[in-house]
Amino acid sequence: MMQRVPVRVAAGQGFWGDWLEAPFRQVMGGPIDYLMLDYLAEVTMSILQKQRSRDAGLGYAKDFVPTMERLLPHLVERRVKVTANAGGVNPRACANAVMDATRKLGLAGRAKIAIVSGDDLLERLDELLSAGHPLANLDTGRPLSDIRSRVVSANAYLGGGPVAEALSRGADIVITGRVTDTGLVLGPLMHAFGWRADAWDLLAAGTIAGHTVECGAQCTGGNCLIGWKRIPDLANVGYPIVDAFPDGTFEITKHPGTGGRVTVAGVTEQLVYEMGDPKEYITPDCVADFTSIRLRQVGKDRVRFTGIRGRAATDKLKVSIGYSYGYKAVGTLVYAWPNAYDKARAADRILRARLREFVGVDSTHGPLARAASDPGDAPEVQLRVGVRSPERAPVERFTREIAPLILNGPPSVTGFAGGRPKPEEIVAYWPALIDRRVVHPAVEFVAP
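Below the sequence we write its predicted structure tokens.
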């Protein structure tokens, strides 16, 4: 007989920069067993690696520490465990900062903190390349050796297994590096239900549960296309909760009295987010078949998932690599009526004559945007120009040329948004695969 009381995993962050109130509301809004906080994206890892290169004590999502300081007394009182990939490229520093918070609050020893590491391959790249792992770009086939000197970060994606191990060893807070978003939910379910590492259907169910809630309120009404005007009280939106059972069935819901909504249509929108082949959603833990999912509305703000099937994990892990790709800058001028559009086009011609190498003009829709536009005598036109170069100097030149147009170009500039633009370093993304046997996840505990 199916367990009648579900294990509840609440999602409190969908990305680094998400609503800071959400984790607190998830813990205080009703009973939960686990709080999952997802902070990482591909570009985030390279940003964190650059921070760590400047300061060895950084390299993690700093927002996580004050969030935990606020939550710790309630987590201890309510016996809620936390899984978070806030550790970025420096999970030990992140865990030490959280441990300092427990000491400050007089809770040292009452919240065991574990670290999951082993994903960071940056220091091992030359060793791996020499051993015959080309880390070829999944899109182009180019070997990593082509850009090796410009690599700033390299992280293998770990799954829910190490998270489950940390929980089984008594962790109350699990802080990871590049663990998949789905693994932060799957790990607690593997631990709570004793799911084996080769129970593919169950692991696929836990993976799909994690995928459904990984973007926070995006599955409870936020950023929702279907009937978005009728979604109630988004200012008070409830973040999603997984109610999971040992047989792999689960339901998505949210705390009572919160805004937003949970419907089959809204959940389906989230399911197709970042979706490739729906029959082969590949993770470090398994291959999930999204075509096997059966959805049913079983109550207000409650959708049940059944029928999920999965297959064995592949022999490879994905590696997210960031590398330096030059510099960019974006500048904006706003021209007022009359003849605002003509003025903006004239300014564009002047900049092109002075600089000759622009990248990004009409980059979103290209000729289609020009063909469809009929600006007439618009009351205001914004000219936004982006440039890119492998070297910093040409970008610096652009930043010095756009501001003078305020006085030496067309008339009626009403705004120079943000002041003179500053060159920014571009970090490009290099996806690759590696033999999972050469990646060694590790679980450690921080001394109280």
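The chain is about 30% helix and 25% strand.
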